Design the sequence.
């Protein structure tokens, strides 16, 4: 296997300014696109702060939680085969269910994950995962 050339830089996906449901949909779309390239990769995911007050049960973007779960199930084999790591950069005050999803690592995503509030640490971890 000849992957000794220049290691690809980790892909940075910035969803920090989006509502959470849109951020999750964008992350899945970007990860799907990365798996379709059929090349090893790592990604840094800059996640949004939680909304003020309660999170509504229905999605304003039209992308339901069930749709996002289906998408994840479809791309998980590609993540398992090609993803060297997902580094989540999230604020400290994310809801418990979001933190649980981030920390579930390979069980949910099919590849190694790490979570931090420090984007520099995330970049270093992801870069090391792809040999950069």
Sequence:
């Amino acid at each position: 296997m000849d992957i000794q050339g220049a290691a690809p830089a980790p892909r940075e996906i910035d969803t920090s300014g989006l509502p959470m449901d849109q951020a999750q949909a964008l992350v899945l779309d970007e990860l799907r696109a990365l798996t379709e390239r059929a090349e090893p990769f790592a990604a840094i995911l800059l996640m949004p702060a939680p909304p003020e007050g309660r999170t509504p049960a229905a999605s304003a973007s039209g992308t339901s939680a069930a749709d996002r779960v289906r998408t994840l199930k479809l791309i998980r084999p590609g993540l398992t085969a090609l993803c060297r790591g997902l580094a989540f950069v999230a604020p400290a005050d994310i809801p418990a269910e979001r933190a649980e999803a981030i920390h579930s690592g390979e069980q949910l995503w099919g590849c190694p994950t790490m979570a931090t509030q420090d984007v520099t640490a995330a970049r270093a971890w992801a870069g090391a995962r792809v040999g950069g």
The two ends are 17 Å apart (CA to CA). Strands lie at 11-14, 41-46, 83-89, 113-116. Helices lie at 20-36, 65-82, 96-103, 106-109, 119-129. Confidence is low (pLDDT under 50) at residues 54-60.
